[in-house]
Every structure is written in structure tokens, then in C-alpha cells.
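re: that chain from earlier
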Amino acid sequence: MSNPRLNQIIERLGAGSVLVAGDLMLDEFIWGRVSRISPEAPVPVVEVTSESYFPGGAANVARNVRELGASARVAGITGVDAAGGRLVELLEATGVDTSGVLRDTSFTTTVKTRIIARHQQVTRVDREQYATLSATQTEFVVAQLERAIDAVDAVIVADYGKGFLTQQLADHISRKVRAAGKILSVDPHPHTSLVWRDATVIKPNRREAFLESGIPAGAPVLPPLEDPSLLAACRRLMERWRPNSMLVTLGAQGMLLLEGDAPPVHLPAHAKDVFDVSGAGDTAISVLALALAAGATPGEAAELANHASGIVVGKLGTATVTAAELAASVARP
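^ sequence. v structure.
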């Protein structure tokens, strides 16, 4: 695959327009240093030096889209709480269209708090409340899709299993996007067990692929193309979901691309240093959708997503990737 071709695609990423629908979250990072062990329990005492906040979940997908220069809008729900207000402000500050965000008094905004010391995550605290959308909330989301579909090139669905997505809503999204001839990229979640029919691309990770397929996960096999359990899980999901392509992220093993009846293709990981995997999947699905919208083949889009993931795991926090960083990664031998 020639670098000039990939560079052409990278240059076109910023021309895309994407609607991101899914579970919106706020990521909080507490940064500090550890100098002693608590006398109360065998745990480190973290002396806080700073705090920072970033869009998380589907909101981070939209942030990644914007960082690559494309336009982004979100469809989702937050609570009428401090976390929801901060999240909307953060999105608007990055240029994301938040008119599709419903702020509902019956809803509690999900907050994931990570405590970081010496470049390592000490622990994570989740504040969340699982809640299935009401009929009124579902109608609002459907209206946002109807309003945006003609103006966007792609729809990204980011399912984090917090209750935003139901099979009824998934079916509606699939039908509407397919009828409009737009790209549908799905990041699934095994706990919802939703069936996505005829999506352009679906991006589960290794664990999700096994859970969704119902095939027991064995220890990773190298190379992945000789992993019979993984290949069986992928084949089952391709038969169930019928996507144009499926990209399975494998962490340090890279990615596995499947298209129709063609043999799977393994893409080795590009990461040199891994500091934090927070949001790596968000970056991958963002690049996938934008690359496909820019005319990339599934193989080209997967290669760019693989490069992007390798970049973002080398950063601390819920990070993003720029087009310049992506081009630099592609240029490296």
C-alpha cells in the first residue's frame, strides 16, 4: 500500500462531516504523585497536583473527528447536572455541534474518574446509572438523526452499554443510514447484544468479538491468523451482522480486517510506547469512518486506523490524533 495514496486520504479527512450517536460521558483525570503507602491500608497515597476534564465515550469520538479537521455533531443525552454542563461546554469549545444533546432531569451524566501518578493509572472510579431511553427520549434521538442525515457523510454509533441504544433504535439507525446511502460505522458493546444489519464497518475489540459470538476466548495465539478460536468468532459475527467489513482490534497484536468471503488480513500494531489505552477505540472508529467517507478502501481505512491507534496509546489521558501526526506515522518505515 503506497504512502502517497494514504497521504491523499489523510488530506481529505478534514472535508468529512459526521454524526456521532451514543453514550455521552465525562472523563475526569486526577494527576498526582505517590510518596508513601497509606497507614490505613496497603494502598498508595496520591498527592493531587492537578485535575483535567475531557469528553468521554461517544463525546470523545466526536472530539476525535473534530481534531482531524472534520465537522462533527452529537446525538445523545446528559443529565441536568454539573458533569453534563461541563461536558457540553467542552464539546462546544472544540467546535462540536451539541444541538442534538438532550439534557434531561431524569438522567445522570456518566463520569469516569482516573487517578494517575507517575504516568500510571492507580485506579478508576465510575459514577454511572444505567437507564434505558424512554419513548420521549428515543423520539428526540430519532429526530436528530432525521435532521442530520442529509448533511453528513457518515454516522458513527458508539455503544458503551449504558442504555442509550436499544435494538429498536439500532434498527432505525441502520435503515435510515442505508436508505440515505451514507456510511455507518459501529463500535459495539457486548452487554447490549445488539444486532447491526448491513453496516459499512463494525469495530469490536478481541474481548467483544468473543463475547458477542458466544465462542469461549482462549489465550491469544501468534500470529492471529493462526488463532482458530478468534477466526471462528469473527466468522460467526460476519454471518450475524453482515457488514461490508469488520475490523477487530487486538491490542498489542494490532488489528484483523475481514471483508466478505475474502481471507482475513492481519495488520501488525504500530505502537512504540504504550502509556494509556484510554480512548484508543474512539480514535480508531473516528479514523475509519472519515477515511471511508474520503474514498478509502476498507484496507486503507483500516491501515490508517491502525496508525492512529498506535499514536494515541503513546499519550496520557483521553487523547486524540491530528492529521499531521497521522501523516508522520505513515511516513515512518
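The chain has one domain: 3-331.
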